[in-house]
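User: Hi! I'm working on a homework problem where we have to compare a predicted structure to a textbook description. Could you give me the structure for the chain below?
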Amino acid sequence: MGVYMGKLSFNSTIMLRNGVKMPRLGYGSAEIAPTVTEQTKIIRDAIDVGYRLIDTANIYHTERAVGKAIKESGISRDDFFVSTKIWNTDARKGRKEIIKDFEESLRRLDMEYVDLLFVHWPVQGQLLETWEVMQDIYYSGRARALGLTNVRRHHYLDVMKNCDLYPHVQQDSYNPLCRNLYNKIFCDNHNIVYEAFLPIVRGAVNDIPELKEIAEKHNKSVIQVVLRWDLQSGVCTIPRTANKEHMISNADIFDFALSDEEMKKINALNVEQDSNWDTENFNF
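Assistant: Happy to help. Predicted C-alpha cells:
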C-alpha cells in the first residue's frame, strides 16, 4: 500500500482487501453546521463539487443530512461511499445497544446499508464485543467493510487474534506533523487502508514554512499540497469544510504532482505531534 505510484484523479479509488472500492478523496461532515437544513445544503454542495465518499457518525449529528442530500441529488445511492461509526455510549452498553445504534444510523441515513462501519473509539473492555457485533452486521450485508478509528496497535492485535475479520480501514491522525508511522506501517503490512482525518490540523499546516515554499513553487495553497501529499503517500483523506469554494479548492489537486524530494521534505516534518485525545484514557 505505501506510496501511491499511479495516476490520480478525483475519481481515484483504492481496493479494500475484500474487493470493495473506496474513493481516495472524500468529505468529512463533522461540525459543519448546527441544523439539518444547513447541513443538507452544505453536503449537497460537496456532492455537486464531485465528492462521493462522505464520512459521518452518530455523534456528528449529520447522518440525516447525509441521507437527505444524497436523495435530493438524484444520484444513485450505489455511486456513493458512506461511512458511519458506533458511538461509545452504546458500545459500553453491549450487544443490544450496539445493534440499536447501527439500526438508528441506517434509519437516520434512510439507507439499507453503509459502505464502511467504524468503531469510533476503543472503549476499554468492550472493543471485542463491539467488533463481533459489527462482524455480524458485515455478514448480513448491511455494512460492506469494517474499520477502526482512534486506536493503537494493541487494539488491532486484540481484534486480529480474537475475531474472524480484521479491519479493512484504519482512520486516524495523519498530517505532516503526525504521520502515525507505528500504526501506518502496520496497516501497510497487513493490507489495511489508512485514512486521514483532520489532515490539515484545522488549518495549522498553513504556518509551516517548508510547506509554504513547496506551495509557492506549484502555485497551490498549503492545504492543496498537504492533501496531494496524503494521496501520494497512499493515504485516503477526508478534509472537512462548510465552504463550497474550499471544497472546490480541496479537490483541485490533480493537475500537479509532488517530486520525490518534496515528498521527503514533507515527511521530514514529522514529529509525531498528535493533536487527538488520548486513545487509552478518554471519558466520553
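For your comparison, note the following. The longest helix spans residues 95-109. The chain is about 40% helix and 15% strand. Good luck with the assignment!
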